[in-house]
User: Fold these one by one.
Assistant:
Number 1:
Amino acid sequence: MSLLELRGMRTDIGQYAVLHGIDLAVPEGGTFVLLGRNGAGKTTTLRSIMGLWRPSPGSVHFRGTDISALATADIARRGIAYVPENMGIFGGLTVEENLILATARGRFDGARLKRIQALFPALERFWTKQAWSLSGGQKQMLSVARAIVEPRDLILIDEPTKGLAPAIVAAMAEAFREIAQETTILLVEQNFNFARSLGSNMAVIDDGRVVHRGTMADFAADKEAQGRLLGLSA
């Protein structure tokens, strides 16, 4: 059984049909990458999984249970976290306060907090600083840290490397490899080299439909498919 399964998921935003029947199965473990050109429907797919936009018709199944009608908060309580493209942090709160808000009981698990600080040392250095004062890379680290401050079964991450310096991207890749050892990641990413270094399985979305799926190793070796589906130069 797949950890997450999307069945015929169609999502309309206002008068516009964005997703036209997404069928996708995400296995448990590792990193599953969603690729596609700008405007293909990748972000809409993540937001529909989280209940921020409602698929109709179609359904979202998590561990075999239909969660399509659940409120976003209830979806999160089932063990799904979401790191949006805009990071979703609270600029007026400190790093510590941002993380506390993401805990279930308003307090940290000590061992888990130490692991997060090991993954993202900058967060410990700026523990009492307001989030607005962090660099773009540090804000992204905080956003990911919020998603893993509690144990999760699945993390949806949207464009985590956008606008980041190469050194920060490399550090993020190392952190994601660690996270994927205990939590399944569904990653939307435009940086193909970053995605290729992390992904075990992948799918390409184009015009609101899944047009290709398979292993990342096979897709990384297929230059013709990369050019045809993503517009990448061979």
Number 2:
Amino acid sequence: MKVGLVGTEGMLGSSLLLGVEVASLRGLVQGAGPALRMDAPAFLRELKRSPAIRKRLNLYLFVLMTQITHMAACARYHLVEARLARWLLMTRDRAHSNEFRLTQEFLAYMLGVRRAGITRPRATCRSAA
């Protein structure tokens, strides 16, 4: 189950900002595109060298923590349809596209439900006439 989504606005390894040098989470790349990588010692050196970078990344960490809190509440209190809508909107924002490829199995994994939990029969539309 996912706990956060990261796009061009963010990063993995935010635990380094808190002085924790052991990663307890894994990242899963969902789409193609460029990414930058920096090893932990170089990152920590840059944090010491630039208070402006540290300040920006602390703000990012605050937003990330808020996002994770909202996702946890959503997972607990909202129906699968609402959780799916939230995930699709967040993915659209990070993909910078109205189109992305995924499977029902992948959606179920990301929402922490069985595949059958996201499969619904199509509703038929009836005219008022």
